[in-house]
Amino acid sequence: MMVSLGATLCLVLGVVSCSITTNYYQELINQETKKALSYDLPTNNEEFKEGVEAQTIVEYGDYDVVIVGAGSVGCVLATRLSEIENLSILLLEAGGEENDFSQIPAMFLYHQFSDINWGYYTTPQKYSCLGTNNRQCIIPRGKVIGGSSAINALIYARGGCKYYDKWAALGNRGWFCKDVLPYFKKSENSQIHGDEGYHGKKGFWNVEYSLPSSTLFNNYINGGLQINQRVVDYNGVNQFGAAKVQSSIKRGKRQSLGTAFLANARKRSNLKVVTKALVTKIIIDQQSRVTKGVEFVTNNQKFHVRAKKEVLVSAGAINTPQLLMLSGIGPKTHLKDMKIPVIADLPVGENLIEHPLFNVVVRTNYTLPDTNMSDLVELYLQGFGPLTKALGVDGIGFPNTDNRRQETPSIELHFSPPFDIDRTIFQRAMNFNTTIGDTFINKINPKSDLNIFVILLNEKSRGRIWLKSNSPIDFPNIDLNMFEKQEDVDSLIEGLRYAFNLTKTEAFEKLNATLLEVPICTNFDKDSNGYLECLIRNVAVSMYHPCGTAAMGPDREKFVVDDTLRVHGIKNLRVVDASVFPLPVPGHTNAAAVI
Ligand SMILES: Cc1cc2nc3c(=O)[nH]c(=O)nc-3n(C[C@H](O)[C@H](O)[C@H](O)COP(=O)(O)OP(=O)(O)OC[C@H]3O[C@@H](n4cnc5c(N)ncnc54)[C@H](O)[C@@H]3O)c2cc1C
Ligand SMILES: *[C@@H]1O[C@H](CO)[C@@H](O)[C@H](O)[C@H]1NC(C)=O
Ligand SMILES: *[C@@H]1O[C@H](CO)[C@@H](O)[C@H](O)[C@H]1NC(C)=O
Ligand SMILES: *[C@@H]1O[C@H](CO)[C@@H](O)[C@H](O)[C@H]1NC(C)=O
Ligand SMILES: *[C@@H]1O[C@H](CO)[C@@H](O)[C@H](O)[C@H]1NC(C)=O
Ligand SMILES: *[C@@H]1O[C@H](CO)[C@@H](O)[C@H](O)[C@H]1NC(C)=O
Ligand SMILES: *[C@@H]1O[C@H](CO)[C@@H](O)[C@H](O)[C@H]1NC(C)=O
C-alpha cells in the first residue's frame, strides 16, 4: 500500500523530480557512509586554536541572556525565552548546522564519524570496556545545532513519571512527577495513542512510531507476553512491559530539538545564533561572584560578550563541567593543580552517570529479503521504512526482572531485528579490539541475526570528568567507571538472563533462535554468573547517556546547582542540561533533559 502511495506521489510530482531527489539521497548516503568509515575523530579542539591564542579580545556587545550550547536543551531554552519579545538572547554553539544526512535515522552510527561529533573516548577503563581498543569506550556527543539530539538514536523514553519523585526527595522543590509531567506534555506533539493524560498533542516536538514495524516485531511482543510482560505505553501510567518504540521523528525524519524548536525561533529578531563558536570561559567577578558574561572564539578571533541578566550553560554533561572548571568552578584542589583561580569549590565533574549496554546477538532462521537503496530512499522520502529506524530498533521493554515490586525498572531491552548494516561501522562505533571484531562482530550475519540490547538503568557506579590542562583546546578526561560496583554487574546479569529467557519462548523458538557467542571467557562454565560477568566487563559498552556532572540538590558539598538550577554561591549563572540529573534516569536522557 505504501509503495503504491509513493508511486502516486511520484506521478503527481512528476517522475523526473522524484527520481532526482531519490538520486540525490542515494548519492548522499553513498558518499557520507564512505567518508565515515575513514573519518578520524579529532583528539582536541585545535580548530579553535588561533582564536584561543588571539592577543586581542573583541567586544561583542550586551545581551540580556547568553546561552552556551545549542543542544537539546539550548534549543528549547532559546525558543522559550525568545517568546519574551523584549528579552535579547545570544545563543553560542560550537558546531555547525544539521544536514540531510544527519536527518536519516538509520545512518545514526555514521553520524558519529563526522564533524558533528566531538570525538570523545573514555580514559582507559578498569572495570569495563576491557575488549575495546586500549580499554577506551567511545562517547559520542553532538557538536551541531540540536547537539546530541542531532546524532542520537531517537528513542523517546522519559523514564516514567514516578521516577521524578526521587529527584524531589533529595530536596529539590518543584521536581515531583506532578510538576514535571505538564512540561513533558507541553513540548510533545504525540502521534501515538498513548495513555490518557500523559501525552501532549500540541507541542513542537513530534513523537511517532516508525512504520511499518519489522517482520519480527510480533515475535518480540509475543515472546514478552509468554513470559508475563504486559504491552504498555511506557511513557504512560505504567512503565513496566513491552512496547513499540516511540520515536522522535516526524514523517520518518529525525526531529532533533534544533529542527523541532530552534528552526522557527531563529527567525525572531531578539534571538541571535552564532555557530562554530566555542565558549572558552564564563566571566565571574571574583569578589561579588556575579556572572558578567562569557568569552568565546569564532572565526579565529576571541570575543567578549556581556550578559546583563544571566548566563545559561547548556553545553551537555561532558562540556558543561569542563567549562565550569575552566572558569574557576569545581573541586578546589583540582583547580589549584590546573592553576585556575578558584571562584567556587563545588563537586563539578563528579557523579558522572552512564547506562551500560550489552548486545545479545541472536541467530535466527529468518532471512531479511534483499532490498535496494533506491527503494529504501523512496520509502524514506514518504516517511516510512527501514531508514526511519536507528539500528532497526522498533521494540523496547522495561521488564520487572527480579519479579519483586520495583518502583522503577532496572533493566531496559531494545529489540533490533535483522537489518542491513555494515559491520565495519558497528565495530568502529563499539571500538572493539581486533580480536573481538574478528571473532564476534564479523561473525554476525546482519540478514538473519537479531540484536537484543540489554541496558542497565539503575547503576550505582559513578565516574568523573576532570581537566587535562587549563586550556580550552584540550578535551577533558572522562572516566565512566562503569561496573566499579559489583551490584551493577549482578543487576545486568539478571537482565541478560531475562533476555535469554525471552529467546527461549515459543515466539522465538519459531525462529529457531540461538545465541551467538562471544568467543572469550572460555575458562568459565557457560551457565555461571562468572562467565556472564566476564562477558559484561569485556564487551558491555556505554549507552551514550552521560549525565549528572553538575547535579541538582540543596547541599553544596554534594551538589552543584540548586533546584532552580542556579550554581550554588554564584549569581546569574545556571546550568540547564543533562548535567543536572542527580540520579540515573530509568529510560533515556533526551526527553528528561528537555522537560
Ligand atoms: C549516539 C547517541 C545516541 C543517543 N540515543 C538516545 C536516544 O535514543 N534517546 C534519548 O532520549 N537520548 C539519547 N541520547 C542522549 C541524548 O541525546 C542526550 O542526553 C541529550 O541530547 C543531552 O542534551 P543536552 O542539552 O544536555 O546536551 P547536548 O544535546 O549534547 O548539547 C550540548 C551542546 O552544547 C554545545 N557545546 C558544548 N560545549 C560548548 C562550548 N564550550 N561552546 C559552545 N557550544 C558548546 C555542543 O556542541 C552541543 O550542541 C543519545 C546520545 C548519543 C550521543
Ligand atoms: C519586558 O517587558 C515587561 C512587560 O512589559 C517588563 O516587565 C520587563 O521589565 C521588560 N523586560 C526588559 C528586559 O526590558
Ligand atoms: C581484545 O580483548 C579481549 C578481551 O579482553 C582480549 O582477550 C584480547 O587479547 C584483546 N585483543 C587485542 C588485540 O587487544
Ligand atoms: C531497485 O529496485 C527497483 C524496483 O523495485 C528497480 O527498478 C531497480 O532497478 C533496482 N535497482 C537496483 C540497483 O537493483
Ligand atoms: C528465567 O527463567 C527461569 C525459568 O523459568 C526463571 O527461574 C528465572 O527467574 C528467569 N529469569 C529472569 C531474569 O527472568
Ligand atoms: C536451528 O538452528 C541450529 C543451530 O544454528 C541449526 O543447526 C538447525 O539446522 C536450525 N534448524 C532449523 C529448522 O532452521
Ligand atoms: C525455523 O525454525 C523453526 C523451528 O525449528 C521451524 O519451525 C521453522 O519452519 C523454520 N523456518 C524456516 C524459514 O526455516
TrEMBL record:
Q: Which Gene3D superfamilies match?
A: FAD/NAD(P)-binding domain, Glucose Oxidase, domain 3
Cofactors, names only: FAD
Molecular function via GO: flavin adenine dinucleotide binding; oxidoreductase activity, acting on CH-OH group of donors
Q: Which Pfam families has this protein been placed in?
A: GMC_oxred_C (PF05199), GMC_oxred_N (PF00732)
Residues binding FAD, per UniProt: V144, V279
Q: Which InterPro entries match?
A: FAD/NAD-bd_sf, GMC_OxRdtase, GMC_OxRdtase_N, GMC_OxRtase_C
Signal peptide interval: 1-18
In this chain the Glucose-methanol-choline oxidoreductase N-terminal domain maps to 142-165, 316-330
The active site of this protein is located at H545, H588
Q: Which domain of life is it from?
A: Eukaryota
Keywords, sorted A to Z: FAD, Flavoprotein, Signal
Please state which protein family the record places this protein in: Belongs to the GMC oxidoreductase family.
Protein name, please? Answer: Glucose-methanol-choline oxidoreductase N-terminal domain-containing protein
Species source reads Zophobas morio
